[in-house]
Amino acid sequence: MEEPLKLLHSVVQAIHPLDNADWEALSAIWKPFSARRKEIITCAGETERYIYFVTDGVQRIYYLDDQNREATIVFTYRPSFGGIIDSVLMEVPSRYYYETLTPSTFIRAPYCEFKAIAYERPAIERMLRAGMTQTLSGILERLVEVQCFSSEDKFRNLLKRSPHILQLVPHKYLANYLGIDPTNFSKLVNKVRI
User: Fold this and answer.
1) What is the reported pTM?
2) Hey, where are the domains in the chain?
3) InterPro entries from the xrefs (predicted)?
4) Measuring CA to CA, which residue among 155, 149, 150 is closest to residue 169?
């Protein structure tokens, strides 16, 4: 099994173990994909057609309001799934952008093929549901942080969840993600140690 599929296999098995036949069916639909630094993979207004699995690089999903202000929603990096998940699952135009921050490599699967396999193989559908449940739990935690936590507490929680993030993601995007002024973010980087 080639390296990207081995990585995908380990993540899938951690979410919901699949037997060999289900894994063989699922692994057959993934193809390599790459993007340059600062490349928009999915634009707002486009319907996402792929499920991505990140094998290298860092990406972000962001929202752009009518005054051209950006709000970074999430970062993706090895080994995680990527893409505009609500657009792909509901098959509706995206409200968000999916952009690479560094040169990035992926394997990706067309959602139409993924959906067909999940329909035929209940274990794959259960794996998708388990993964979505974990994602929803993380989104709810993030909403509490955004609405209730101080800037320092948001920063501390980010470092607890992803201690390596300061080396992966440019600080201006982390400040935006946390809703902190870049100057205050720099102060937190120098002040807070986990």
Assistant:
1) 0.90
2) 3-121
3) cNMP-bd_dom, cNMP-bd_dom_sf, RmlC-like_jellyroll
4) 155
